[in-house]
Amino acid sequence: MYTSKIIGLGKYVPENVVTNDDLAKLMDTNDAWIQERTGIQERRHIKKGDGNSTSIMGVKASTIALERANLKPDDIDMIVFATLSPDMYFPGGGVEVQHLMGMRTVPALDVRNQCSGFVYGLSVADQFIKTGMYKNILVIGAENHSGGLDFNTRSRGVSVIFGDGAGAAVLTRSDDKTGILSTHLHSEGAHKDQLALKGPSTSYWVPEIIADNPREDIPYYPVMNGQFVFKHAITRFAEVINEGLQANGLNVSEINMLIPHQANLRISQMIQRKFKLQDSQVYNNIQRYGNTTAASIPIALTEAWEEGRIKKGDLVVLAAFGSGFTWGSVIIRW
Ligand code: UT7
Fold this sequence. Notes:
The chain is of the alpha/beta class. It has 11 helices and 13 strands.
């Protein structure tokens, strides 16, 4: 069996910066509340006419990742595209990347799994590379949240959190035993309604929505039971990080860089305290980008690598938790 290794990383975020004060002009919120509860200072939103979409941001991040991997689009054997906010209901973003980047007719797999999408995507790619079926796989996490959020006070607990952006990683076959050591994935559908966007969907279709509109429970905007999600996130993050370390006979103290999904700075800080990690061992950028769900880990991983905070031989741990609930971890020897 082979090992898969990340050899190129890229990120893209729209230029349009939206501060907490900007949001306070649209709804009853304020900078102090948002910073204290989430750590977020600003996020990026696509601006109408700036040419961006979920797929296009994915292409921009992928172009950088490919250049850094020193590969051409033709070298890619498979695309895995994770998003909860695709440009279209169907088809998904993977085929758009294949087309826009001029790739061969390689398979394009779309992954949902929300905040865990990139971790699930890496796991899928890892399996294809391990077995020898494919050599180079492009894994993308991209989100356009701003196009589908409710910027009214009734949704303030959700809408101040999310931001737009994309990140991408190129994985290749490796013979030297460095790279992805293991991936660990979980789900618990009993809590599917705790963080969800219910329509439009086949169970709540457009004519019904129009007939019901306006409804109190606004099912065409995301809803979240924040405290419930928060409590589960703390538990599951810790569990799945431990699971990954134990599977490889590793200790928490050996982690050089933990990149948690950027859900809430308070969640990351609680995990850091629980594992007694130094600031230098955990990467956070939610302050600047908000929660970009499937894009948050690849954006943070790219920035950590760009800043020289990940070096050859380092133990890098990725961990995610989100809607579904779904959660997972990836243990990497860089
Ligand atoms: O990425 C996927 C996983 N997602 C997560 O992990 C998110 C987990 N949850 C959270 O991060 C937090 O629960 C939130 C940041 C979403 C909310 O923070 P909280 O400390 O749990 O606040 P809360 O929902 O309990 O609300 C406290 C108060 C409420 O007012 P009352 O009822 O006490 O008067 C809310 O209406 O804060 C109010 N509130 C706001 N006030 C100002 C909620 N959102 C806002 C807001 N601005 N944006």
